[in-house]
Amino acid sequence: MADKAAARATGARLLAAFREAGAVEVEADILQPAEALLDLYGEDIRARAYVTADPLRGEMMLRPDFTVPVVQAHMAEGAEPARYCYLGEVFRKQEHRGPRVAEYFQAGFEVFDRADPEAADAEVFALFARLLAPLRLRAAMGDIGLLMDAVRGLDTLPARKAALLRHIWRPHRFHALLERYAGLTPVPPARAALLTGAGQPEAPWIGLRDPAEMAARIAALRADAAAAPLAAEAVAQLDALFAVNAPAPQALAQLRALASDMPAIAGAVDRLARRLAALAARGVDLDSVRFEASHGRATMEYYDGFVFSFTAAGPGLPPVASGGRYDALTAVLGQGRSIPAVGGVIRPGLVADLEGRA
């Protein structure tokens, strides 16, 4: 890993390129209020962030990324459209020793523009592709919104669709739920006993949930158990969608074929076509970019549309750059306001390392 001086110098060069592309440089405090991050990610964020307590400000976290504070600042007082850039350190716990580090620089570029979302997607991707071209990285993209539209189109209970959407960023949990809803896995004995009434606790109740909450939960479980299983054809179509992995033009053709049987994804496929056309207009070689339908599902939690990454060939290395669209995040942090937004980050330390090996 490049030393801090080399990473900072590389980051400054990237930051200058972002400013030349029309972005305004912004700062974000290293100590961030934990409340907003916990509201967005739940308690899972504690396993990855450094948490501390301030006697006046309450629970705080060392900055795990820039996107959330940038969105908060823009939604509070930003004009439209807007382009921002930044450079600074972020902090994330790592479970194992290796090439990943707990403290590293990020250089980022964010676009808030409601005029043409697919053009904004192409602007960010093409800028990153140009800046990183000398490194000959592997470029990949996906679309979380495409997957979400497919789930919303399922013929099943709203509660089941909500659960699948909630876990779309957790692939193992998502597919376990899908198999259960399709009747492909047996009901656990404890749940079976609860559904028949044999497992219901007798008074006095113990725990934080009161009897009414427990009764509502049991009623929801019984409604789920009584619902018809997902059709085998629907599961097969979802599996085929999640497995799409090809150069972008070929993937678009595959997705158009799938959309004939999955009309819920037709709009997302049309948006992908417009995005690819915008990328081609900016000089991106589409045959060199892979579209992976499951791209970003395990690592990009707040993205809800277009996602992308640039990776090096080294085993175990994190992406050199990654990003995507996060329209829903602006609505969550905008207190009733929202705006389409897309952005990404580059790790200057990795760029400096790879340039040093060239």
TrEMBL record:
Look up the domain of life of the source: Bacteria
Q: Does the keyword Transferase apply?
A: yes
This protein's assembly is summarised as:
Homodimer.
For this record, the Gene Ontology CC terms, alphabetical, are: cytoplasm
Q: Which residues cross the membrane?
A: none
PANTHER family (alphabetical): HISTIDINE--TRNA LIGASE, HISTIDYL-TRNA SYNTHETASE
**Every Aminoacyl-transfer RNA synthetases class-II family profile domain range:** 18-339
InterPro entries the UniProt entry points to: aa-tRNA-synth_II, aa-tRNA-synth_II/BPL/LPL, HisRS-like_core, HisRS/HisZ
**PROSITE patterns in the record, alphabetically?**
AA_TRNA_LIGASE_II
Membership in a protein family: Belongs to the class-II aminoacyl-tRNA synthetase family.
**Annotated protein name in UniProt:** Histidine--tRNA ligase
GO MF annotation list: glycosyltransferase activity
Q: Name one Pfam family in it.
A: tRNA-synt_His
What keywords tag this UniProt record?
Glycosyltransferase, Transferase
The entry marks the following residues as binding L-histidine, namely 65-67, 92, 106, 110, 297, 302-303
